[in-house]
Design brief:
single chain; 36 strands; mainly beta; 484 residues; 12-stranded parallel sheet
Amino acid sequence: MSKTKQILSKASALLSAGSLLYKKMKLRRNWQKIVLVLGMLVFTTVIGLNLRYPKAAMAITTYYVATNGSDRNPGTRTRPFATIAYAASKVQPGDTVYVRGGRYYPTKLIWIGNRGTASNPITFQSYPGERAIIDGRNLPPNTDAINIGGEYININNFEVLKSTKFGIAVWGGKHIKILNNTVHDTAITGIFVSHNDLNQVTDILIQGNTVFHTNLNNSSPNDQGGRWGQGITASGVGNIRVIRNKVYENYGEGIGLWGSGVLISNNTVYDNYSVEIYLDNARNATVQRNLIYTNNNRQYYRFGQPATGIQLANEVSQNQLQNNKIINNIVIGASWGFYYGNYGRSGGMRNTLIANNTFYKGTFGLIRIDPDGGHSNNVFANNIFYQVNRVKMTQFSASPALKFHHNAWYGGSAGLGAGSGDVRTNPLLVNPGTKIARDYRLKAGSPLRDKGSTLTQVTNDYAGSTRPLERRHDIGAYEYFPGT
């Protein structure tokens, strides 16, 4: 029996009982009291049934968009919408928008300002087994293809190209997932996350994307300085994660993060202009388990050299570099493997840990740290510095704020980087010189096994294996694993 029928049945029974009561009382003067009693009984019954049978939750809807659709349609599978922008105007928490395969040519920004919830996010994605292509060639100048300002939004498995500004942008959004997209040939940044107030940007996941040929406005590079962004730019104040992306051949830097509480992990980054991975005014950031290399594609060189591997700076007034970790990365053939640049606002590195990385053959060198009065408590430990190309290894001034110990130096002088526990012999890597991470593991006879310092901040290696696997930490990005 339906809820409404139950209420009417109870009310009818009460009214019948009231009629019988009236006949038995035969006191006409008491009819007002009888009506009042009946009203209270009916009201109590209705409330009771409402409590017992709560209102149904808002329906969750699946919408469809297709190249042969119409925005006059209801957005069903057989009668889809024509544009993602129109679908975005309809969605509610828990809804999914499936975009069928094909090429879409938006003529204005696709704005997604909706708010999902933690339990019911809103998802936009290519239809399973298909790939929707968002081609921005018809957008007005300086216009993003997709811009997200809402909360709990997922963007999954699109190809985005030829936007006249950013490919996929988050401006002030929270709890956003940008997953498995391919973004390329954009005027400026491929994937961009920021806001005037960084407190408005929290819990952003950028994972599994491929980003290339962005920042085309800088495709005739200006070595002396110009306006370029990154393949992926993200800035915010907490839980900003850039994980397992492939970022290459961008006319700006590869990946750049600002703000605090950020993570760059397990990415493959190569042949980007100027810098591969860049921390600028970052706090409490971790850069870990990234593979960085060059294919010597001179189209993306700056000053006739490939990009810097990992670089830190304080360019703007917000935040100050501090409490950052650079751990378990493999950097191959960069101009400088690691570089701190004193420009912009300056201010130095503070409480920075650079540990268990493998730096291989820098074309300028392996470490450059510009002098800066703001440097404080920076530690370089358990790293491999492998040069063997008659190029200097280090360029920095003596400073008590730069502490070196338990590093491996091979192919040149450690200079001011020499410290206690160092190893100065061939590290015996499996097959150095390739662009394959596993080739930078330690051989069984490596002198770097059990020679590292125990660092509580470094609990695993490039492969995710626990440190230590033997008695003590090994030096380099990999812990030795038996059978290597």
